[in-house]
Design goal:
The structure is a homodimer. Chain A is α+β, with helices and mostly antiparallel strands and about 130 residues long. Chain A has five helices and five strands. Strand 5 of chain A pairs antiparallel with strand 5 of chain B. The structure holds a DNA duplex (30 and 30 nucleotides).
Chain lengths: ~130, ~130
DNA sequence: ATATAAATGCAAATTATTTGCAAATTAATT
DNA sequence: AATTAATTTGCAAATAATTTGCATTTATAT
């Protein structure tokens, strides 16, 4: 349940945030703020979306990423942890299972930072654009 | 030599681009467009910087990354390939040696994409901010 | 040398994201 | 349950990074 997910992070449980997670869940792919708003039945102010998403990202609940097209993308961090390849030409994307070893103990010991989340994306040319 | 690096990518060799690479080389850390312009002796229009950097990034010469503070960062892709940890609170950063296995053959086979570059960043709390 | 293609500067536009503040909602306390 | 304190939300406006069109200059290919 979304309430439990939010609660575990220490954030306040609000109807808007539940709606937000529900919309992200429905999308099942990285979406922009605009796409996200369209997915939502409930209305939600853009600034509120940004503020809430930031907290959910910092809490590790939402995956925020950057496909280098000037917009932030958000995706629900589910069990099927994954990343993407992006064509630098046509901007098409595919999901990939590959991930860096998620055990960040060594980095934490070396740097003193407590790692809560990460970003990993591959860029290149798709089959169409490389020919 | 910067000329050779540019040539190998098939881009035109211009004084501006050489100045750009030289400035990135001097910086030896991820820099924003503004920081980069300050490093440069030669003047260069902002739009030109963006356009040239995009090509250098696509060519795999420059590493472009995103620390989630609304600005793009650029760093010369040298021999010392590395990534970073970023504090989500105070925005402080450290370099780390850790990288995903750079052998992307399996991904290329699975997706049909030709991988030219990637982004990988860790986010969390630094020692100060976690206490 | 000449022609073609690519890169540059300028000025203006676009658009994602942030901020301040008052009202509303949620969490904590008695 | 009722009250207080803390957090969240909406609104409107501001901020600032990035992009675009076009004419000119510079680099590459013939």
């Amino acid at each position: 349940m979304y309430r439990d997910i939010i609660k575990k992070s220490g954030l306040s449980i609000t109807t808007k945030r539940i709606a937000l997670l529900s919309a992200l869940d429905k999308a099942q792919r990285p979406v922009t703020i605009d796409e996200l708003r369209n997915q939502m039945t409930d209305t939600m102010d853009t600034s509120t979306m940004y503020r809430s998403l930031k907290k959910l990202v910092d809490a590790g609940i939402v995956y925020q990423t950057d496909f280098r097209d000037g917009v932030s993308y958000f995706e629900l961090q589910g069990d099927n942890h994954h990343h993407h390849v992006v064509c630098t030409e046509c901007k098409s994307r595919k999901s990939i299972d590959m991930c860096v070893n998620k055990n960040f103990n060594k980095v934490e010991k070396d740097t003193g930072y407590t790692i809560t989340n990460h970003i990993f994306e591959l860029f290149g040319l798709c089959e169409n654009c490389s020919s």
